Amino acid sequence: MTTQEVGRPRRRKEDARLLTGRTQWTDNLTRPGVLHVMFLRSPMAHARIERVDVSAARGLPGVVAAFSGRDFAGEQGSLPCAWPVSEDIVIPDHPPMAVDEVRYVGEAVACVIATDRYRAADALDAIEVDYEPLPAVVDMNEALSPGSPKVHEAGNKAFSATITSGDLDAAFRDAPVVIDRTYVQQRLIPTAMEPRAVMADTDGESFTVWSSTQIPHVLRVMLAVVTGIPEHRIRVIAPDVGGGFGSKLQVTAEEVLCLLLARRLGRPVKWTESRSEGNLTVHHGRDQIQHIRLAADADGRIRGLQVSLLADMGAYLMLVTPGIPMLGASLFNSIYKMDAYEFNCTGVFTTKMPTDAYRGAGRPEATFGIERTMDELAAELDLDPIEVRRRNWIRHEEFPYTTIAGLTYDSGNYEAATDKALSLFGYDKLRAEQADRRDRRDPVQLGIGVSTYTEMCGLAPSRMLGEANYGAGGWEHASVRMLPTGKVEVITGTSPHGQGHVTSWSQIAADALGVPFEDITVLHGDTAVAHKGMDTYGSRSLVIGGVAVVKACDKVREKARKLAAHVLECSPDDLDFEAGAFKVRGTDQSRTIQELAYAAFTAHDLPDGVEARLDSDATFDPDNYSFPHGTHLCAVEVDTETGMVKIRSYVAVDDVGTVINPLIVEGQVHGGIAQGIAQALFEEAVYDADGNLLTTTMADYLLPSAADLPSFTLDRTETPATSNPLGAKGVGEAGTIASTPAVVNAIVDALRPHGIDDVRMPCTPERVWRALEGVRR
Ligand code: MCN
Fold first, then answer.
1. Measured between alpha carbons, how far is 554 from 618 in angstroms, rounded to an integer?
2. Residue 579 confidence (pLDDT) above 90
3. Ligand 1 atom nearest 736 alpha carbon
4. 383 vs 685: CA distance, rounded Å
5. How far apart are CA 160 and CA 348, in angstroms?
6. How does pLDDT run across 429-468, given as a tens digit for each residue?
7. What is the pTM of this model?
8. Whose CA is nearest to atom 23 of ligand 1?
9. Ligand 1: which of 13, 193, 668, 675 to mutate, judged by most atoms within 8 Å of the beta carbon?
């Protein structure tokens, strides 16, 4: 008997190598004669480039070459935006190195290539640049006002989009309750443990690009499109990648330029960012102003919801920049039923680093907006926040349910997840303690925050992505090869960078083929090895890529069945497959799948129509997204004298359908919650009025450490998805999406008796203290 692998808390195969330093980060790789490039970056948020003179840098020791943007004009193309979300969208030209104008601090204007990165960095000082300053445009509202300086000739509006459903006027007309709030999603800087790094090399004909990227397959296509180098001459390898969180779902200036420099110089060229360079120039996340109006009946039933967003695009549209706020378009309504919905979004250009995907991408913003608003509705009606949610959510017997925003949620059970979370949290006891502290006027008040969320992940059905004008498909591919000795290679189009696909895919294949977990290896992240793929983002890998593995294994098994029937001289229908062997029913005759793999290798005696080798491949493209959901509860202690917030307890009950590996799922939820708490309490990218980023170091941009976070209590309910044969739903972003509003709701709950109904994120001690001072005066 083999043990069932799916559902087993396996420790990750990847970790021994990662934890013992035998990792292949891009920066650890080298090539004979490698050169290092460093970029001179604009110190101005907005300026015309009058002159760039790199000649003095060229003569310095160790310097091999130096170039300005103009030296690459005509060759460097324009960085791509692959998600034109509306007809009116403006996609400005985006040269990897600026030629005529810079539009954010940190934009590359010139580069030095030298024998080591320190000489290259020193030589940057010798480059002369004359800038003619132009006005910075930092604030989104000002950017849209009539007299504003323009970021681009075409103006500061990147796009506008509206979605309407139901009769909003009727919903708001005579509504007994209208909640009207504005929330700010501050700008965030994704901070992966491994900074971005890239190396490119050529043999004079073909090119290899090693990059710390989430998207080797997409990158290969885009590098070909941007540079004009034929796609079949480019190989992209994502070696070990130390985190991305969306920030490596990008086609960057540095990737394009390393490739072009390798071509121009005929030598390998490498770049690794410093942390400060990373803060300036890794694409940023969030940065939205949300205006939300909600109409409800006197009993708390929602009638209608109107959302108006301003979304800061920064200076240019990068790979999926405009799509990010639009990913939230169908989710502000969340798990709630209502009669009418309207969503408006305006994308705004400013002279700041472009924004793009950051863990959750559009969905944390939507969840925050609605979950904060639900708490305001509860407060307005003097209802318990859980009760107001119960009165509005889709009940488990109503699935599949088509929401007001047009998505069909296939499955879920919000009651079960919430009940479990409430009991683990000790909700009633904490409410009693809260009442007691309020009565005693304890300077340390207790706040309780809830967030009941769903999200849409597993990006996914190509048909739906086409309707949204997304520039790529949503399928995923896998190959499964049984080797002559009975071991297995799984080749996946997903590109893990911390999610443990090697382990999860091994568990899936072990069950499907009946082979030991240890006998499986998983190859990924190299376009010459995994020749088809759509990569890893949008919590898509399991529900699409993992399912492709299942399908490829099914085909391998069916081929093995034909071969077994031939060898055992019986009908394929007379064979039972059990524990990795085909057995002739009612006899003791059998063949293991390993024996059949060898027979398929020698091909001495194959049945007609069966080709040599036991291998197969499959692609999967589901017909719907996956919709994980759950309930997060947070208790905070807020010191009303100092503004200090301490998270006392945090309970998360998530439903991600069938679980492949509970340990990995827990790890994903842990990391996700940490990132959501970080937005609520710690992180913010700050620009001054001149467009200078003030948070360029980790001393200024506050990342939480383990010591800043409580131990989380995690549990699950399991409502299988109907959109894929595994019954799984994605988990990679769920924790981030759910957690931020739970924390802020808790803080506001603590402060509500003081007359406070909002604290802007991050809710630092200073912000909390100032909010209290404001009402004390
Ligand atoms: N899993 C499971 N059972 C489920 C769901 C998932 O066992 N029901 C497992 C999967 O098998 C996989 C892992 O959980 O090993 C994550 O799966 P999935 O939800 O499909 O997410 P992806 O693999 O597509 O990862 C992308 C997601 C995103 S979008 C961001 S952002 C993010 C995240 O993953 N960035 C991460 N988690 C991260 N984790 C690390 N360490 N580093 C990042 O950069």
1. 9
2. yes
3. 31
4. 36
5. 9
6. 999 999 999 999 999 999 999 999 999 998 879 999 999 9
7. 0.97
8. 541
9. 668
CATH for 17-134+191-281 is: 3.90.1170.50
Mean pLDDT of 48-55: 98
Structure tokens at 628: 């994980």
For ligand 1, whether the C-beta of 245 sits within 6 Å is yes
Give pLDDT, residue 2.
Answer: 60
CA of 18 to the centre of ligand 1 (A): 17
CATH class of the structural domain 410-457+627-777? alpha beta
The full set of domain ranges for the chain reads 17-134+191-281, 410-457+627-777, 460-620
Quickly tell me which residue has 């769920």 as its tokens: 734
Residue count of the chain, please give it: 777
For the cut 50, the answer to whether the pLDDT of residue 1 exceeds it is no
pLDDT of residue 458: 83
| Helix axes of 734-751 and 765-776: crossing angle, nearest 10 degrees | 30
**3-state SS assignment for residue 21:** coil
Closest alpha carbon to 418 in 454, 469, 444: 454
Sheet holding 581-584, edge to edge: 575-578, 581-584, 590-592
Strand-pairing partners, residue 713, are 651
**What are the strands, taking DSSP E only, across 315-385?**
340-349
> Which atom of ligand 1 is nearest to 628's Cα?
8
What are the tens digits of pLDDT across the range 77-108? 999 999 999 999 999 999 999 999 999 999 99
Amino acid at site 226: V
- Cβ-in-10-Å burial (0-12, 13-18, 19+) of 517 comes to middle
Pocket of ligand 1 contains residue 730 by CB under 6 Å: yes
Please give the pLDDT value at position 648. 97
Same fold, 410-457+627-777 and 460-620: yes
CA distance 599 to 157: 64
- As a whole number, mean pLDDT of residues 675-692 equals 98
pLDDT in tens, 378-422: 999 999 999 999 999 999 999 999 999 999 999 999 999 999 999
Average pLDDT over the chain, rounded to an integer? 97
Cα–Cα distance measured from residue 384 to residue 369, given in angstroms and rounded to the nearest whole number: 18
Helix (H, G, I), strand (E, B) or coil at 586: coil
Q: Are 335 and 326 in contact (CB under 8 A)?
A: no
Q: Is 251 near ligand 1, meaning CB less than 6 Å away? A: no
Q: Longest C-alpha distance within the chain, in Å?
A: 91
Residue 550 tokens read as: 């299942």
For domain 460-620, the CATH architecture is 2-Layer Sandwich (3.30)
The pLDDT tens digits of the residues spanning 607-649 come to 999 999 999 999 999 999 999 999 999 999 999 999 999 999 9
CA distance 284 to 186: 10
Cα-Cα end-to-end distance for the chain: 73
Tell me the CA–centroid distance for residue 657 and ligand 1, in Å.
Answer: 14
Would the CB of 660 count as within 6 Å of ligand 1? yes
Instruction: Give the C-alpha separation, 499 to 668, whole Å.
Output: 7
pLDDT band of 777, cuts 50, 70, 90: confident
Q: Tell me how far the alpha carbon of residue 713 lies from the centroid of ligand 1, in angstroms.
A: 19
User: Shortest CA distance to 96 belongs to which of 149, 41, 18?
Assistant: 41
Task: Calculate what percentage of the chain has a pLDDT beyond 70.
Answer: 100
Instruction: Please state whether beta strands 614-620 and 590-592 pair in parallel, antiparallel, or not at all (unpaired).
Output: unpaired
Tell me what the mean pLDDT of segment 310-339 comes to. 97
Cβ density class 173-196: b for 16+ within 10 Å, e for less: eebebebeeebebbbbbbbbebbb
Q: Is 360 in the pocket of ligand 1 (CB under 6 A)?
A: no
Distance (Å) from CA 383 to ligand 1 centroid: 36
